[in-house]
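Hey, quick one: can you model this chain's 3D structure?
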Amino acid sequence: MEPGIIQTTGGMLHRQDMDFICRIICEVFHCNKEQIKNLQPLQKGLSNAVLTFELNGGKYVFRFPGLGAKVLIDRGRESMIQSQANDAGIDTTLVAMSVSDGWKISRYINNRGFDYHNVSDIVRGVRLIRKLHKAAVKVRYEFDVKAKWEAIRDAIPAAMYGENYPEFPDFAEIKERVYRLYELAEKDGIPKCLTQGDSRDENFLINDSEIYLTDWEYAGYNDPGFDVGTFVCGGDHTDEEVDRVLFVYFGYEPEPVEKRHFYAWIAITGFFYMHWTMFKESIGQKIGCLKHRWYGYAKYYSQKALTLYEEAAK
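Sure thing. Here's the predicted structure for all 314 residues.
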């Protein structure tokens, strides 16, 4: 690797990138470069390069936009909803951000990492999602999942899309089921709301006294199933564990229409992130094992949900 290059899970940072980051920090905090301490990568996340730094006794996080961000992210929508998340008490960590350049500075929260196998973490995380969905905020921006995966599809070279992508061998069958499920789920009468759009473990900042949900790049007015779907698709869960998530979310055993609807959205979420995977890998970023998890959820839950819809139609 060339001197001056920093590798992060969200991409490489070159010397000129680091100079840009230091310049922005100095502009935001009205400081000089020598005051910035311990600027180092935080090996977390796939969408962006993320670093931490210390300044004047405080610790902060700097997000530098990753590969393909202009295709994937609407920064204007993100900025507006980040403000609403702050007002709702869901994420109060923002210090400053740029819509035009895509960078963001946030307060660093001491956290121990969200644990999908810790029942307390699951309850706290899912209840925070529910709080977001019940927040009394007016959402200007829709996040249309189907339109977004189709826009991503159009940005993927044909040689890497669908059946041509070797790690998704039965892509066509999954696609057919997911498109059908999307139509069926739209008719279920489940109210849309403000959603975060990437509610998996890495975006929860949790400690013994606090929990925040961060990263609003895929947020908007959307089906609540997308947040439950991203929560589930972020980890490996048995059928029983998924049903427990739904029970915590609703606060009761979900009605049949609610269960099949949210199962459908687990599949839809997996399918959306299959497209995200193909696009990211087409521009040179390796995704790793997460792509197999997203594919597995899309395949399994598209079959499971469609069976429930077909049984309900008899």
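One thing worth noting: The chain has a mean pLDDT of 93.
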